[in-house]
Amino acid sequence: MEIGILHSHVTIVTLFLLFLLFKSILLFTNKNQLLNKVRTKFKMADPILGVLMLATGGYLLYLYGAEAPTYLWVKLIIVLLIIPIGIVAFKKENKAMALIALLLTFYIYGVSEAGSLTFSKESTLAEDTSDPQPEISMDDQPGIISQNMENVLETGKEIYLAECKKCHGKDGKKGLFKSPDLTQSKLNLEERIAWIKKGKGVMPAYKDQLSESDIEAVAAYLDELK
Ligand code: HEC
């Protein structure tokens, strides 16, 4: 159900964006007559898409609950601005306003894709990866090994809280978008690593977002949730 809503939300936003783009092109190329025809013919398109966009988006926001990232709220406010600006822009054939609506729409589309207001996909651990862990050799003291494991789990926890908590919850049981309870997962470490790299359905693939050692760290951390 949630996944369906997420997919419909993306489809609706894409349709809204394409329609806005189409009308803007007509306006900017001074095809006002055609623009008016399109507007009269598809008079209901914007209000319907707008309501659907807000309804599906609002529902997704509700699913996130108190953990909704700030960018989702900013998106909501911007969408509430775009709809009236767009309506007035095409009614009054005002190019500046149409441009604003268009730019704002592209902006929130980008924000949604990147999941951040500044489009930075930064992993919270970017710095840690450039600082390689010391090699563990056969004659290392067990104390050093366990300290290393502690570092890995600490790293794993940070990544978990930054990337995974929003769907899986702090304790692994949140189940947003029907994600399974991670405390009940039967996957072993290897399988979890493979899963996190590939992602599935709504769950993003982390292969290109996180380094190999970050993925291993977060996969190891999942045992701590049990
Ligand atoms: C956007 C939501 C979302 C995010 C973010 C997310 N997951 Fe998931 N995760 C899911 C969903 C949904 C599934 C179930 C997918 C399916 O079976 O189709 C899942 C499944 C899993 C599974 C498989 C569990 C099992 O036993 O089947 C693991 C392990 C997992 N996620 C770990 C993580 C880790 C680690 C992160 C962060 C690096 C993460 N997830 C981020 C939504 C998410």
Automatic annotation (TrEMBL):
<dbReference type="Pfam" id="PF13442">
    <property type="entry name" value="Cytochrome_CBB3"/>
</dbReference>
<keyword id="KW-0813">Transport</keyword>
<dbReference type="InterPro" id="IPR009056">
    <property type="entry name" value="Cyt_c-like_dom"/>
</dbReference>
<keyword id="KW-0812">Transmembrane</keyword>
<keyword id="KW-0249">Electron transport</keyword>
<keyword id="KW-0408">Iron</keyword>
<keyword id="KW-0479">Metal-binding</keyword>
<keyword id="KW-1133">Transmembrane helix</keyword>
<dbReference type="InterPro" id="IPR007360">
    <property type="entry name" value="SirB"/>
</dbReference>
<feature type="transmembrane region" description="Helical">
    <location>
        <begin position="6"/>
        <end position="28"/>
    </location>
</feature>
<keyword id="KW-0349">Heme</keyword>
<keyword id="KW-0472">Membrane</keyword>
<dbReference type="InterPro" id="IPR036909">
    <property type="entry name" value="Cyt_c-like_dom_sf"/>
</dbReference>
<dbReference type="InterPro" id="IPR050597">
    <property type="entry name" value="Cytochrome_c_Oxidase_Subunit"/>
</dbReference>
<protein>
    <recommendedName>
        <fullName>Cytochrome c domain-containing protein</fullName>
    </recommendedName>
</protein>
<feature type="domain" description="Cytochrome c">
    <location>
        <begin position="151"/>
        <end position="226"/>
    </location>
</feature>
<dbReference type="Pfam" id="PF04247">
    <property type="entry name" value="SirB"/>
</dbReference>
<feature type="transmembrane region" description="Helical">
    <location>
        <begin position="71"/>
        <end position="90"/>
    </location>
</feature>
<dbReference type="InterPro" id="IPR008168">
    <property type="entry name" value="Cyt_C_IC"/>
</dbReference>
<feature type="transmembrane region" description="Helical">
    <location>
        <begin position="48"/>
        <end position="65"/>
    </location>
</feature>
<feature type="transmembrane region" description="Helical">
    <location>
        <begin position="97"/>
        <end position="119"/>
    </location>
</feature>
